[in-house]
Hints:
Chain A is mainly β. Chain A contains no helices and 11 strands. The mean pLDDT of chain B is about 95. The radius of gyration of chain B is 13 Å and the shape is globular.
Amino acid sequence: DTGVSQDPRHKITKRGQNVTFRCDPISEHNRLYWYRQTLGQGPEFLTYFQNEAQLEKSRLLSDRFSAERPKGSFSTLEIQRTEQGDSAMYLCASSLAQGRGYTFGSGTRLTVV
Amino acid sequence: QKEVEQNSGPLSVPEGAIASLNCTYSDRGSQSFFWYRQYSGKSPELIMFIYSNGDKEDGRFTAQLNKASQYVSLLIRDSQPSDSATYLCALEGGNDMRFGAGTRLTVKP
């Protein structure tokens, strides 16, 4: 068990570019979550996968955001046509079951310039 | 009204004192409640979870839940400078977890 891995740790991109982040959850965890966190705020839910199925997506999530978990293992989060407001820490988490809490990855810090 | 409300702090306590962190929530249907610790620049890490009314103790930490009052708290006994962090309250509803904005705790030597 190597924990939840996220890549890259940091990403600086120009406004309008597309970016993709990767998350590798704990291997036996079938639940995977993406969150976004800005300074002084708690993590904000983006989307949830159970195995390969995307079961929930935040209504706040712009259609520029898309996530996949093609084989029920790793997941990717893509942001198209990035905006300065997308600058944040993007956190991935996984869990074994509801009610057991999440294990978070180290996050990907995105800066849009 | 936010789903999960926390006093943003900062809360400052001397080393060895009891730190008391509070959280209120709006969804009466919430069943599971969590406390996470987040050091500056790091990701949240789970400290405790509680489901039933009353107290739950784990080492120096005690979580308290009062569903009638929609109130969750975390007590940290014998606070240490290494406890200085932001503490996030969270509740699980449906398929995701909702977080408060966190309370920043500083323990002064």
